[in-house]
Design goal:
Helix content is 25%, strand content 29%. The chain is an alpha+beta fold. The strands form three sheets. Strands 4, 5, 6, 7, 8, 9, 10 and 13 form an eight-stranded mixed beta sheet that branches. A three-stranded antiparallel beta sheet has the order 3-12-11.
Length: 308
Amino acid sequence: MSIDNFIPNLWSGQIQKKLRNELVFGGLVNRRYEGELKRKGDTVTIFTVGETTIKDMKPRNAKGAPRTIDDPEGIATGKISLVVDQEKYFNVGIDDVDAIQRNADLFPEYIDSAVYGLKSAMDKHIIDKMIKEAGSELGTKDSPVVLTAENMYNEILKLKIALDRANAPQVGRFLVMPPEAEGILLSDNRFIYVGTGGNALANGRLFKASGFDIAISNDLTLDTDGKCKIIASNRESTAFVEQILHIEPYRVEKAFSDAVKGLAVYGCKVIRPEHVIKANVKIESSGTGVKPTKPQQTNGGGTGKSKI
């Protein structure tokens, strides 16, 4: 049987690598706490250190005596628990696992298919966490900030200033928007277009402005009025961990085919909520202008090509 030649490391390695490239939010937040995850329910401990007090040095006295300093102070430490509480799987039928592994054209297609759903589930989980635990908010659901080509840059400056006031690190700042905002960004040369080649698309960073890496994500959705949330933050504010735990082949009982199933676990925790801003916005002219058409019925009962 072809599954006797199944190579689990080939599949899990390719899926893990592809996930790293495809995740938008997962590619922007802190990933250094992953370690060795074994199962759902595992806990990752994140240690924190309090602020250090900066004091004035005592002036020299007239006699030139040595200046003394205060005794060392204690710095408060704490810890935050990140629980790996999400578990997803895929299960796909394949006519011949061995043949697919040798096929340079089809194997990446199977990997892409498995990664697509996992990527969206993981990014949506990070989005939900950051929105729920954000330390500050711009606009409201009922009175969102209307973003236009004329004001978007200034609104982004407001987010920058808010993070400055919160003492968020300058390095690693990011801002994520839905695809409908990309046209506005492209129309203003103050937004530096990074392009879609190399790592620009892989890590989700498409634009730069005001100290932000600006990424576009399909997982930030608009309602029918063009309202949505965008997120401004810093890489160190949020921790994310994920792991592909199992990749297994098996023979399908009721078919003459093989199948591959995979299990992934992941979790997310906002560790510096004061460095996360959710902005309630409405994107002016958010429609694409493209309407789907119904497939044309042919005399033979098949479907013809739709026209736009």
